[in-house]
UniProtKB/TrEMBL annotation:
Protein name listed in UniProt: 8-oxo-dGTP diphosphatase
Cofactors named for this entry: Mg(2+)
Gene3D superfamilies per the UniProt record, alphabetical: Nucleoside Triphosphate Pyrophosphohydrolase (3.90.79.10)
CDD domains with a match to the protein in the record: NUDIX_MutT_NudA_like
Amino acid sequence: MAANAAPGTGAVPGATPAARPLVPVAVGVLLRPDGSFLLASRPAGKPYAGYWEFPGGKIEPGENLSQALERELREELDIRDLRATFWRSCVMDYPHARVELQFCKVTQWSGEVRPCEGQAIAWQQLPVDVAPVLPGTLPVLQWLARERAHEGPTHIT
Ligand SMILES: Nc1nc2c([nH]c(=O)n2[C@@H]2O[C@H](COP(=O)(O)OP(=O)(O)OP(=O)(O)O)[C@@H](O)[C@H]2O)c(=O)[nH]1
């Protein structure tokens, strides 16, 4: 420990606290030709269980974004062969983790969407009528609203 560290903390007074690690997450915005998009509820046992989000999950070491997205959507929804393009990213700082959400628009896939992890799923239009919505999902609803010139609330609270 540094000589001037605060007792018992290992922290140096006045020093900038070390940034928490940034966990990369691959997220799919599945879009149907009518503009509807898929939300899924977070399964029991995970932080924010029951909150609605876009399907996806952490990028594992050695994976790139598209590999992680293929794996996550196969595991969660039993779909594969995605036509996916990176859209936008944002950072969310939760008590349980600091994550970088990398959102991809997914416009084609093979297989029928089927929830494989006990999660509920819902095809949605704006305003979203499922609740509660995960904080990290809200920016995406804003981006969609801007793209679609949607006015008014993006979701029901
Ligand atoms: N999948 C997904 N995760 C999101 C969204 N928005 C958002 O903040 N997150 C956050 O991103 C992280 C994704 O982690 P996860 O727990 O779903 O990942 P995972 O499927 O790999 O889970 P595991 O670690 O239990 O295997 C969580 O901290 C979650 O709160 C979203 O729209 N979709």
